[in-house]
Amino acid sequence: MRHEPPPINRRRARDMRIDSTKAENMLWQEIRDRRLEGFKYRRQMPLQNYILDFVCFDAKLIIEVDGGQHAQSRSDAVRDAFFRSQGFRILRFWNDDVVRGLDGVILTIRDELRNPGE
Q: What is the CATH number of the domain that holds 32?
């Protein structure tokens, strides 16, 4: 799924990396540099006109860390359906879940990496 993102998405992704939420920063510290099960993650990655919070291409896993504006989001459902059709698995966590329960979030991600397709 290689493609060149539009320049506007590249700028937005760069800005989002600079201005990440506390929850995104906390999760990034745990998964960066192959710290979680040896998998490489990219953060704020522009892909197919979307910007993904975190993606591991080897495991085909997308991780989204959402604030309240994403509650029952129709556009998120469309986006998730598109990426699932491309073979990706998607995990979504609320900001508060990451901040208050980072260990549980990491365990959920680890389980998904160890048991793909279950």
A: 3.40.960.10
Cα–Cα distances in Å, from 113 out to 14, 82, 87, 99? 27, 21, 14, 21
In the chain, the number of structural domains is: 1
Domain coverage including residue 64? 7-111
Q: What number is the average pLDDT over the span 92-97?
A: 95
Cβ contacts of 74-83, under 8 Å, gap ≥ 24: 79/50, 82/48, 82/50, 83/50
CB 95 within 8 A of CB 66: yes
Give pLDDT, residue 67.
84
| Conformational region of residue 2, where left means phi above 0, alpha means psi within -120 to 50, and beta covers everything else | beta
Full-model pTM: 0.84
Distance separating alpha carbons of residues 26 and 21, to the nearest angstrom: 9
Rounded to whole angstroms, the Cα distance separating 6 from 65 reads: 23
At 85, list the tokens. Answer: 């059709």
Q: Is residue 1 part of a domain?
A: no
Q: Is residue 82 part of a domain?
A: yes
